[in-house]
Amino acid sequence: MTPAYTLHSQLADDTHPLATLRLCELRLMDDANYPWLVLVPRIANARELIDLDADQRRQLTDEIDIAARLLRTVCQPYKLNIAALGNMVEQLHVHVIGREQDDPAWPAPVWGRVAARPYSPEQLVARVSQLQAALPR
Predict the structure, then answer these.
(1) In this predicted model, what pLDDT tens digit does every residue of 23-49 receive, in sequence order?
(2) Per-residue pLDDT tens digits for 96-121
(3) pTM for the full predicted model
(4) Would you identify the CATH topology of the domain 9-102+117-134?
(5) How far apart are alpha carbons 61 and 17 in whole angstroms?
(6) Where are the domains of the chain?
(7) Closest by alpha carbon to 43, among 74, 22, 29, 28?
(8) Among 31, 25, 22, which Cα is nearest to 7's?
(9) DSSP per-residue letters across 57-70
């Protein structure tokens, strides 16, 4: 029997659902310091890119492109950071982060620089609505 995919509890706690793509869950990181999306392939026990088959890796690349273009369209960041680290959460996931030259961590990586600033309920609804409206159909 094939194991079922489940979202890691830390990702569930730190992010909000945005969309279900062909391969991945697209989620919004709950940190209003940066426009920050997370893609999580719905593949049980995937920890590394090499745990995906060739078609899944190509699909992940296409979905990273969707997320990056979505942030560029909606938020118009100066720079996009794209990373799959997994040191704290081993489940395979990819961060797509919009960066500005005056953001709290610039030019360093965002991790560990400043405390996360959770979205207010109103900000969250507005950001999710804005991003969902701009998703390709």
Answers:
(1) 999 999 999 999 999 999 999 999 999
(2) 999 999 999 999 999 989 999 999 99
(3) 0.96
(4) HIT family, subunit A (3.30.428)
(5) 20
(6) 9-102+117-134
(7) 22
(8) 25
(9) HHHHHHHHHHHHHH
